[in-house]
Please model this.
Amino acid sequence: MRKQFESQLTLGTTPINEVKIPSKTRSHIVALVAALQHIYISPKWNSKVFSLLAEKVLKDKKQTGREGMSLWEMFVLAQVRLADNSSYDDLHHKANYDTLIRGVLGVLPTDYSLGKQYSYQNIYDNVSLIDDQLLIKINALIVEVGHEIFKKKEDTPLRLKTDSYVCETDTHFPTDYNLLWDSARKCIDTVNHLRKEIEIPGWRKHARWKSSIKSSMRSVGKVSSGGGKNKDVRIKKEARVYLEKTRSLAKKIEPIFNTPISTVSIKILALLESLSYYEKMLVKHIDLVDRRLLKGEVIPHEEKIFSIFQDYTEFIKKGKLRPNVEIGKKVAITTDQFDLIVDYQIAENQSDSQMTRCIVTRIHSRFSIQSFSVDKGYSNQLDRDWLEGFIPEVVMPKKGKRNQAETQKEQQPKYRKLKRKHSAIESNINELENRGLGRCPDRSWKKFRNYTALAVCAYNLHKIGRKILKDRLAQEKKDKERLLKLVA
Model:
C-alpha cells in the first residue's frame, strides 16, 4: 500500500524540516533540495502536490499489499534525476549515499547506520509512474510557488518571452541505407529470440546473415562518402549487392508468420508484433534505397523516417544560408520576467508561427499578461493583430521589408527595450539544456514527453531554490551585522 509519506517518523531519522542546507553554494542539487524542502514544510503547497500525486498514482489502487515507495520519495527522486542530468545509475547512488538528498527524502538516519536503501529497479519503476500530464499540473503549482517568492506584489502581470529549440533524441544520423541495416539487424535479432520459444527451421546461420548484410552496408557508405572515378557506377554496384541480400532476408522472414504455434504466450505475441514492425521497416527502406541509389529519384520528405526506434523523431533545419541540422523534437518554452518556465509545448511537425495561439491561450487563462515577445520565426500578421487585442505590449518583428508605420513602431524606445530583453530566453534555454533537456536518453514517445516535463519542473525548482538560498544568505548577513553592532 503506497502512502503519501510516513505520518510517524521512523526512530533515529532526521526530520525533513531539520535538514541543514548550506546557503553559500553553487551546487544545482543544493538549490533543488532547498526548493523541495520549502514545498514540504509549507502546508499550502505540500497538500496540493500530494493531492495531485495521489490522484494519479493511487487511482484505482487497493489499500492492501506491501508498502511501496512513498509519493514524496517518488517526486524527489524524479526531480533529482533531471536537476543534475543524472542517469538512473547516478540516481541510484545518490538515493543511497548522498546525505543531503536522503535528508529531503526523509530517510537520513541520525546515527552512522545506512538506513533505508533503494534498489535500482525500485527507483526505475517508481519514477516512471509520474507522467507528463501529471507533471504539467505539478509545474503549474511550482510556478505559483515561484511567483509567491519572486513577486513583490501579488497582482504583478507577467512579461513573457517565447522561443523554441531542438531537444535531440538518442539516435544516430539517419540515412536510408543505415536505417535499412537497422531494420535488417533487428529482424534477425527478433527471429533469434523467437527461435527460443517456437521451432523455426532454416535460421542456423543467422550470425552469418547479419555479418554479410553489415559488410554490404559499410561498402555502400564507404563509396558514397568517398570520391574517385565512376563513383555513380560503383555506388549502384554496391547498392545492388546490398539490396539483393536484404530482399533475400525479407523473403526468408515471410513464412515465419504462418508457422504453426502449439502454445501461444504473451512473449511470443510480443515478439511476432515486433518482427512484423521491423519487417515492415525493412521492406520500406529497401524501396527507398532502390529508388534513390538505383533509380536516381529524390525522396519526398514526408516519406522519410529518421529512426526506426523513435518514429516521432524529426529532421529539423535551422537557418537559411548555412542550415544547422538537428535530429529530435522542437520544444517551445515561455518564460516570465523571473526566468520561470510558465509554459512549454512539444511541436508536432509544426512551425513556430503555428504554435503562438495555443501557447498564449493556455497562459492567458491562468495569468495576467503585460507583454509578450517572440522572434521573427513566430511572425504572423493575423497573430500579431489578435495578440494586440488583449496584451498591452507585443513584440513580434516582421519578416522581410517593413513599411514606414512598422519601422516607426519597431524603433520606439519601449519596443526596443522589450526586444533587447527577449534575448534572455536564450540563457533560459541553455540552462534548461544543462538540466538534461539537450538530449533525451529515453526511447519512447511517452518517455520523451515525461522527460521533457521533468526537466521543466527541475529547472523551475532550481530557480526557486537559488532565490531561497540568496534570500537566506542576505538575511544571515544582516543578522551578523546586527549582532556585531550590538556587541560593539
